[in-house]
Amino acid sequence: MDRYVLLERSGDDGRIATLVLNRPERRNALIGPMATELADRLEELGSTPEVTVVVLRGAGDAFCSGLDLKEFGAEPQPDWVPTFGQEWRRAHRALFDLPAVVIGALQRAAVNGGAALALGCDFLIAGDESFLQVGEIQQGMAAPMNMAWLRLRHSEALAARVALLGDRLAGPTLVALGLAHQSVPESDVLSSVAELAGRLAAHDATGVHRIKSALRRTGLATSAEEWFARPLEADPLSLGQAVPPVAAVDR
Questions:
Q1: Number of domains the chain contains
Q2: Strand 16-21, strand 5-10: pairing
Q3: pTM of the model
């Protein structure tokens, strides 16, 4: 049974699937088993044609605080550490290939690895006081998954503003920059997500899948594997090896 990523179905004929990152005691920080479960569930939903909307949110009051440094640094080293990078990329490849529309519910914080998941959503609804932060630059780290999603959806100038400054970007700022669809009071995030999910789920399933596929493939003649490999190959220090995201420093 899944422990770190919960799957819920709702809506007419189960058209809406909700994935819940389930480590609320650690603000849903990322560990290996969570990356594996997320990849498994996204691949499963990718093969479930009746699902036309996927909601991604965190348990409790936070989206995802990035890598769980405490768990990664545990002694003895957890057996999942060496394979985290490949499982993390598998999750993003599955998110990239998902034929359903993805809505992210940004509550409290989406930091580094959490930001990459939020940026991978087709629609992001954020709390007015919640924030997204691509803060790897503070530790001299690359941000390959964040860069992949930023450059897929946005201009180089916007990607530079987000990744090179590494600032916390609150809900209203995310909307102004085009990174989020809507910013609402904190207490209204989940209800606003549910409203949008219901609206999208009312569309014809075939039409959703056709348009989502066209949006992804128009102007992008490459596979998910090749797209997410590009930021790693472009990093002069990575030698093409996946580097796990790290937790940003609170400022």
A1: 1
A2: antiparallel
A3: 0.92
Domain assignment present for 207: no
Residue 29: domain span: 5-189+219-234
Range 92-95 contact pairs with CB under 8 angstroms and sequence separation of 24 or more: 92/116, 92/120, 92/145, 92/148, 92/149, 92/224, 92/228, 93/224, 93/225, 93/228, 94/39, 94/42, 94/43, 94/46, 94/224, 95/42, 95/120
Tokens of 11: 């809506």
Q: Specify if 205 maps to a domain.
A: no
Task: Say if 210 falls within a structural domain.
Answer: no
Question: Which CATH number belongs to the domain containing residue 31 in this structure?
Answer: 3.90.226.10
In a domain, 209, yes or no: no
Beta bridge partner(s), residue 125: 105, 182
pLDDT in tens, the chain (251 residues): 569 999 999 988 899 999 999 999 999 999 999 999 999 999 999 999 999 999 999 999 899 999 999 999 999 999 999 999 999 999 999 999 999 999 999 999 999 999 999 999 999 999 999 999 999 999 888 899 999 999 999 999 999 999 999 999 999 999 999 999 999 999 999 999 999 999 999 999 999 999 998 887 776 767 888 888 888 888 877 654 444 444 444 33
